[in-house]
RNA sequence: GUGGGUGUAGCUCAGUUGGUUAGAGUACCGGUCUGUGGAACCGGUUGUCGAGGGUUCGAGUCCCUUCACCCACCCCA
């Protein structure tokens, strides 16, 4: 094979595209039901945007970005995540002037230089929702409600919501201090990576899965015990709201996120029916990011969902019905004038919204019959010289196995009125 | 980045202790068949046996290297 697809990329083939589109339809429809509006941002951004928003000590920025210089010597990066771009566009296009809260969503593709495995690619699709301009816990609750609504519209079950609060600039420093003190005390028992994390990004130590670290973490100071009164109240109100809304959750004091811009609420929804790559969706509050990127103080909440993993669950559970439009009518002909006429008649029938294909090689009835049956096409139209004489064509119903001589209009009516393969 | 598994036709797979020109099914194309049912029969195309090197008179088979895919770790969605 001379050319092959790049590692970690995927072709979506005929037969697979329609489930994707159907999934996107669900995402758009559900988002609209919550008042979210779609935003489309460029695939590329300046590299600094991600360094400043996601954080330069995160794995994504430090080793997973597709970055390059363009011919104008500009530093450019293929988007590794969506929130940074949305915030940039929100500021650059003065969406700050819209009445708050501003609710946006995106369906986009992103790039991360990671080792591919099940449900994870280097080029991947994400849906994301972002809500700007309110620090009310009701926004957190509604965003989580949207997340559940989306997943359930896809027919998903076995969902687990994990919830935590990681505080704000007025309470996190103190917590961080205690955490670092604790980690320093137990430094010798931590794994080599966590020894580094303890200095650079101590919160990340909390979700290390290594046994040695887990043992140490048994006695670790817990974020939710160190929240300031405002954060604490915010977190409690959110939990009350979720309870009232009937959204089941587990508080997990070890839950943290991989991006630096989060504060207060963080959450993750996973599915027990996935293997190791079980996280379907994750997000949280980022009240300081807009300001960090040069905008006015603007509290915000959001989450992102990986669509490959969602597709895997949907397909395994067979939980969505996909309808791919397929051809209604195949036209058999005998070449020459009958082929020319077939092309012309096909277009007349298409005007009525019917999906028509013509035997472009004029190989006669037998071959067309086989072709139509092989493709599962329900109707076959025969256009030969006999038919052309009196403009009465032979329409075969391949399911009922009968045929009749009809005018063009009668053919259109017959196909439109049939229940198979609707328009 | 680390570890394990797998690579033979578009797809599913045979291929003996190393032995001639690498096979089957399926798919695809053509014919029987220039106006009627998914068939049947006949014929045809497709492989650098993942790639490179080594051992050998001889390698799909043994050895080394490498690449890709799958799975797990890491990380993330």
List keywords for this structure.
423 residues, alpha+beta, BirA Bifunctional Protein, domain 2, Rossmann fold, 2 domains, eight-stranded mixed β-sheet, five-stranded mixed β-sheet, 15 helices, 21% strand, RNA-binding
Structure, described:
The structure is a single chain. This protein folds into two domains: 246 residues, Bira Bifunctional Protein, Domain 2 (BirA Bifunctional Protein, domain 2), CATH 3.30.930.10; 89 residues, 3-Layer(aba) Sandwich (Rossmann fold). 38% of the residues lie in helices and 21% in strands. The strands form three sheets. Strands 1-5-6-11-10-9-7-8 form an eight-stranded mixed beta sheet. It is elongated. The mean pLDDT is 90. It binds one RNA strand of 77 nucleotides through helix 3, strand 6, strand 10, strand 11 and helix 11.
Summed up:
With 423 residues, this protein is an alpha+beta fold. Helices cover 38% and strands 21% of the residues.
By secondary-structure content and strand pairing, the structural class works out as: alpha+beta
Report the radius of gyration as a whole number of Å. Answer: 28 Å
How would a crystallographer describe the biggest sheet? 8 strands, mixed
The CATH class of the largest domain turns out to be Alpha Beta
Average the pLDDT over all residues and give the rounded result.
90
CATH topology of the largest domain: BirA Bifunctional Protein, domain 2
Q: What is the global morphology? A: elongated
Residue fraction in strands: 15-25%
Topology of helices and strands:
Blueprint: H1 17-33, E1 37-38, E2 44-46, H2 47-53, H3 59-63, E3 66-69, E4 75-78, H4 83-92, E5 102-111, E6 123-132, H5 137-153, E7 159-165, H6 172-185, H7 192-200, H8 211-217, H9 229-244, E8 250-251, E9 263-271, E10 279-285, H10 289-292, E11 300-306, H11 307-317, E12 329-333, H12 336-350, E13 356-358, H13 365-375, E14 379-383, H14 385-390, E15 393-397, E16 402-406, H15 408-417
Parallel strand pairs: 1-5, 7-8, 12-13, 12-14
Antiparallel strand pairs: 2-4, 3-4, 5-6, 6-11, 7-9, 9-10, 10-11, 14-15, 15-16
Helix pairs in contact: 1-5, 5-9
The protein binds one RNA strand of 77 nucleotides through residues 1, 4, 7, 58-60, 63-64, 81, 110, 112, 114-120, 124-128, 193, 209, 257-258, 268, 275-277, 279-283, 303-310, 332, 334-335, 363-370, 372-374, 380, 382, 384, 386, 394, 396, 398, 401, 403.
């Amino acid at each position: 094979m001379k050319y092959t697809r790049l590692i970690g990329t995927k072709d979506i083939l005929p037969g697979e595209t329609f489930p994707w589109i159907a999934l996107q339809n669900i995402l758009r429809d559900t988002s609209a039901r919550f008042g979210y509006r779609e935003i489309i941002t460029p695939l590329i951004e300046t590299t600094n945007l991600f360094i400043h928003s996601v954080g330069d000590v995160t794995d994504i920025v430090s080793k997973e970005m597709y970055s390059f210089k363009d011919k104008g010597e500009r530093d450019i990066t293929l988007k590794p995540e969506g929130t940074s771009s949305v915030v940039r566009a929100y500021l650059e296009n003065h969406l700050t002037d819209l009445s708050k809260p501003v609710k946006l969503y995106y369906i986009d593709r992103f790039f991360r230089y990671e080792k591919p495995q099940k449900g994870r690619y280097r080029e991947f699709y994400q849906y994301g929702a972002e809500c700007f301009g309110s620090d009310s816990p009701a926004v957190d609750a509604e965003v989580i409600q949207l997340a559940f609504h989306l997943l359930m519209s896809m027919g998903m079950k076995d969902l687990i919501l994990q919830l935590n609060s990681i505080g704000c600039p007025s309470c996190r420093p103190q917590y961080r201090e205690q955490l670092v003190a604790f980690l320093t005390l137990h430094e010798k028992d931590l794994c080599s990576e966590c020894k580094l994390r303890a200095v650079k990004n101590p919160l990340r130590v909390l979700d290390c899965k290594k046994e040695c670290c887990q043992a140490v973490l048994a006695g670790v100071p817990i974020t939710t015990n160190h929240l300031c009164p405002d954060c604490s109240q915010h977190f409690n109100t959110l939990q009350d709201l979720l309870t009232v809304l009937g959204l089941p959750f587990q508080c997990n004091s070890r839950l943290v996120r991989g991006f630096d811009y989060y504060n207060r609420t963080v959450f993750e929804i996973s599915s027990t029916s996935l293997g190791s790559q079980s996280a379907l969706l994750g997000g949280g509050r980022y009240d300081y990011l807009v300001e960090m990127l040069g905008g006015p103080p603007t509290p915000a909440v959001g989450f992102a969902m990986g669509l490959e993993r969602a597709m895997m669950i949907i397909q395994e559970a067979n939980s969505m019905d996909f309808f791919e439009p397929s051809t209604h009518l195949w036209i058999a002909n005998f070449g020459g004038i009958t082929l020319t006429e077939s092309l012309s008649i096909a277009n007349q029938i298409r005007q009525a919204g019917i999906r028509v294909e013509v035997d472009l090689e004029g190989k006669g009835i037998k071959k067309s019959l086989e072709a139509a049956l092989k493709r599962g096409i329900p109707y076959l139209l025969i256009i030969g010289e006999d038919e052309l004489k009196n403009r009465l064509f032979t329409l075969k119903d391949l399911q009922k196995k009968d045929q009749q001589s009809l005018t063009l209009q009668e053919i259109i009516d017959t196909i439109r009125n049939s229940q198979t393969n609707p328009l």
